[in-house]
């Protein structure tokens, strides 16, 4: 089968492409420039240069494809104009889906974000739980807008579009610099991470990248049009996370708790210095505020309706830690 994917050079996207190629599918990967996807070519992936905001380019790229995974998004910590998030994530999704319909694509999976559902203030997060708080940043809001765009195409255009929303994804990476949780694990293994953000008690949901790939593919094959599936894994506090990491890696480091107020102060100073230097900040107060809540998430709907099978947490953590040893 010929399958298209946007965002295939990202952490999850590269693992998804490998899974599809291993199963004998022909994959078309849309890239902004060929250099970004050059490591995909040895796998036999067809690279197509296309702008996410150019409907004609997208339509040509999707010709002959039966399925599409739309994973590309603006997910940076900071943008000079917040409109950029909405232009890429919401308007871009609209153009991608319009192009997919024009090209005759039969089924689409759109990757959203577990952050859209918000923290678990009143109870554990599920697909049916209303969000307790306003969005923390433009990224979350733009992904929520993207979800509504996808639902409009289901209702008005009768397209078969399914949404999936991963939580904190981690695992070995195939190339480039690992992001988020995997980067934290890598730095811990290398002895360069001693920080517990907020406190040992704050809980988050951590999911193996292979389980996220499995969830994407199950959603493509069995997901109901217009449904959103949280691709969640295991709820762990920071204390539990780092205790487990010490156990599986054989490295026990003394950790330092950085309270939220200290992180907020650092973020303000860092953002001011970045602005003076004309650089993009790596941390903002909007993102720090998210750490002042529990983010416990239920994977039950994906397990029940899609047949998602979760990898045991320590098994995933051990495989990730082992991949970084010796680097």
Summarize the structure.
By secondary structure, this protein is of the alpha/beta class.
Task: Please tag this protein with its features.
327 residues, alpha/beta, Rossmann fold, 7-stranded parallel β-sheet, 12 strands
What does this entry look like structurally?
- This protein has 327 residues and is of the alpha/beta class.
- The protein has a domain at 2-171 and 207-233: Rossmann fold (3-Layer(aba) Sandwich), CATH 3.40.50.720.
- It has eleven helices and twelve strands.
- The strands form three sheets. It has a seven-stranded parallel sheet, sandwiched between helices. The chain has a three-stranded mixed sheet with strand order 7-9-11. Strands 8-12 form a two-stranded parallel ribbon.
- Helix 1 (11-22) links the parallel strand 1 (2-6) and strand 2 (26-31).
- Helix 1 crosses helix 6 (209-222) and helix 2 packs across helix 3.
- The two termini are 37 Å apart.
């Amino acid at each position: 089968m010929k399958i298209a994917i946007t965002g295939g050079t990202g952490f999850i996207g590269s693992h998804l492409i490998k899974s599809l190629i291993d199963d004998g599918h022909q994959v078309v990967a849309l890239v902004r420039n060929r250099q970004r996807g050059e490591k995909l070519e040895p796998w036999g992936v067809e690279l197509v240069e296309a702008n996410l905001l150019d409907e004609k380019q997208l339509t040509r790229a999707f010709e002959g494809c039966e399925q599409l995974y739309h994973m590309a998004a603006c997910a940076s910590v900071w943008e000079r104009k917040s409109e950029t998030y909405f232009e890429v994530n919401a308007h871009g999704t609209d153009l991608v889906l319009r192009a997919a319909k024009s090209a005759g694509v039969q089924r689409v999976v759109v990757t959203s974000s577990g952050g859209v559902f918000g923290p678990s203030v009143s109870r554990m997060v599920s697909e049916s739980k209303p969000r307790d708080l306003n969005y923390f940043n433009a990224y979350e809001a733009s992904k929520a807008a993207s979800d509504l765009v996808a639902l409009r195409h289901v209702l008005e255009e009768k397209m078969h579009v399914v949404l999936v929303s991963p939580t904190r994804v981690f695992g070995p990476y195939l190339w480039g610099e690992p992001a988020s949780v995997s980067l934290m694990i890598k730095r811990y293994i290398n002895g360069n991470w001693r920080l517990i953000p907020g406190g040992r008690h704050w809980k988050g949901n951590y999911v193996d990248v292979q389980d996220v790939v499995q969830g994407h593919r199950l959603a493509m094959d069995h997901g109901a049009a217009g449904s959103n599936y949280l691709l969640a894994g295991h709820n762990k506090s920071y204390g539990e996370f780092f205790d487990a990491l010490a156990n599986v890696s054989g490295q026990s480091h003394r950790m330092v708790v950085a309270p939220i107020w200290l992180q907020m102060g650092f973020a303000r100073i860092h953002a001011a210095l970045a602005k003076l230097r004309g650089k993009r900040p790596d941390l903002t107060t909007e993102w720090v505020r998210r750490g002042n809540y529990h983010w416990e998430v239920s994977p039950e709907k994906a397990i029940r309706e899609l047949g998602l099978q979760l990898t045991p947490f320590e098994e995933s953590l051990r495989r990730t830690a082992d991949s970084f040893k010796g680097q």
